[in-house]
Amino acid sequence: MRTCYDAITPGNIPANAQMVAGYVDGRYAWSAADWARFPHSVKARIAVFSSTNDGHILDVEPGCSTPANAPGWVVRRRKAGIDPTVYCSLSAWPTVRAAFAAAKVAEPHWWIAAYPGNGAALYPGAVAHQYANPGPVDISVAADYWPGVDPTPIKPPEVDMTPAEHAMLVTAAKFATAACNRAQDLQVEVAALRAEVAVLKVGPLGVTPAVIAKAVNDDAVTRRATWR
To answer: pTM score, two decimals?
Structure first.
């Protein structure tokens, strides 16, 4: 879940906000400089009027768009390649949904306003919930992925493989597993041999392998000195 801020005055929103929502039209439309104030924020663009073929979200409330105009805006935005959202109050939500049903238009995503409503939680079927207005900003909780606002996740490409290639891959995996198992067995065998060597006694004088190794090393040093 994420926190989203919206305001008619962008300067009132924290510059490091994870997510911001601003207006693309109307009296409080944000300028390019206003949007640029949030270089690292996810940006949700709100259209106040249904006649504006722009934005991710349509604002349906008194003084902005009406429920009856929302389906037409959604259809235009979908034709423009946008996966749209409609903002409305919790009390108006049934009316707006009824408008989509009457127009036989598939419902958009929903950003629901209710203060405090169910708190910093999403209503079932909504991608965001505006739950606080401490002034001079509104605060919403938003889903980790908001379709149409967030970039579409990139699906890893599927790799085509012939039956023969799959069989080779399976065989290679079996050999790799066998090699790993053998390596583990060898490690156990080496550890056992080292343990045996550590207690080995050579000759009546009880000469240990360490003494023998030192003698061999000393002899090698002597031979190198003679060669010089």
So the answer is: 0.68
